[in-house]
């Protein structure tokens, strides 16, 4: 049986969003468990450690999206709260990707958040899924994240 040669590729996209809050309040909202506060339907299931804390090595799983894949396994690969940096490695059967979030103060009581998704296919099907996922995730250039987080922050200040 002849196998076709697979060539792995990396595809990435970055967006910046402005969040209306002090960076000390904004940055934690990118943690896996705090995201529940602003992302409807977000429901991570903790694997490690035994309580919901954010640190390098924290791992959890979530249901797959759009009935494409059953579930995703997530691990925090970088966490530097002094630099307002967090990175997730997410894996599925045919692909994996990283989500890197870097925040910095911006003006009075605002934070600039730079979010980069980098996808890697493990096979041709994974490469096709990556194209679809990247286009879907950045359909609104992450302005849906900006809106969700700012709505949450706005409700805190009522």
What does this structure look like?
- With 158 residues, the protein is of the alpha+beta class.
- The protein has one domain: 2-Layer Sandwich (Alpha-D-Glucose-1,6-Bisphosphate, Chain A, domain 4).
- The chain is built from 3 helices and 7 strands, in the order βαββββββαα.
- The longest helix has 14 residues, at 124-137.
- The N and C termini lie far apart (66 Å).
- The mean pLDDT is 93.
Beta-strand content bin: 35-45%
Number of domains: 1
Gross geometry:
globular
At the fourth CATH level, what is the homologous superfamily?
START domain
- Poorly predicted runs are none
User: What quaternary form is this?
Assistant: single chain
Average predicted confidence as pLDDT: 93
The biggest sheet amounts to: 7 strands, antiparallel
Count of helical stretches: 3
Provide the gyration radius in Å.
17 Å
- Structure classification: alpha+beta
Strand order of the largest sheet: 1-7-6-5-4-3-2
Extended strand count: 7
Quick one: CATH class? Alpha Beta
Measured as a percent range, the helix fraction is 10-25%
